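Example 377.
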Amino acid sequence: MKIDFFHHSIGKEEKKSLIKTLGSKIISTGPVTKKFEETFAKYFKAKYCVGLSNWTSGGLILFKAFGINPGDEIITTPMSFVATSNVILHAGAKPIFVDVDDKTGNIDVDLIQSKINRKTKAIFVVHLYGQMCDVISLKRIAKKNKLLLFEDAAHCIEGKFKNIKPGQVSDAAIFSFYATKNITCGEGGAIVTNNKNIYDKLRRLRLHGINNNFSERYNKKFSHWDMDELGYKCNMSDIQASILLPQIKKIGLLHHKRQKIYEHYLKKLSKCKKISFFSKIVNSVHARHLMPVRVEARNRDIVIKELEKKGIKTTINYKSIHTLKYYKNTFKYKNKDFIKSYIIGNEVISLPLYPSLSLRKVDYVSKTLINILNKLT
Ligand SMILES: Cc1ncc(COP(=O)(O)O)c(C=O)c1O
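Predicted structure in complex with pyridoxal-5'-phosphate:
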């Protein structure tokens, strides 16, 4: 049996919507992007959304919009995709890693205060695997120390912490619509914020700092445009937005399927003592972006290779960022500096999880994984 690690949920509606856009004049940022932004903001009960070409460029313009400068420090987690800390480096700032909570893999909120100093400008958290961090405590720390609070919500469209969604208490949340994400257009991103001034800045910064974009000018009488500040080029196109819009309507349904698959895995795998799981915080909604399980570090890579031989694709989310060559060489980190993140990075395997995955295939993955582990000491 062949089992993919991920599979998008793009169907008939998305294809119809895309074809309609392709028949229109403005296939770059235009009315469909605007509609996407309004619909996505509404989903989060937020005032504003800015559509982008991907999450990473969102990070770049976010820091510019909020005035993060070289020499500033931003507190973040080492347990994430490299994009989270790479955008901090691109802003000229320094990522200050704080170790994670072993039970969830999210940043350990209790360790943050001791890392704050005069250079600290922001806390940038990641809602790992789709589970929101404790944004209430984070907001309290940010407020007390006059820091900005940003959320990497690349995994967490559906997540809630005590009924709070990403973007509701922080200064901004960034989303990714990369190919593996819960809703996708291949590549894409968005920032959600309630700050009008930042929203206006982000709209300019995604288009070179130009004050009047092409589609807005095109249908009006000729007018000059000017450039107010130095921006990037990372606007979402109507092509991307047209693929995303129908998926927003299906978020609830797709999430329900993910949750069912997660529960089935849990039922099947919890029999095996050699597998452990991350816990869910009470009173929260988990987006179930990924299906991470932990096995003994010495067996982890063997298990991945054996699963592959049986046709099952898996991946690692993530090796701790501080252990990656560039970060190790630049900042002289030792593995033990963020020991919990380091251990997770050596033990974790993400199993296939996507709405179209049948429970029969979940049975097969579970049985195969248990058989492999039973043969290992
Ligand atoms: C946690 C996290 N942050 C950031 C990103 C970067 O997203 P993008 O590829 O849209 O730039 C990803 C994408 O995989 C991610 O998983």
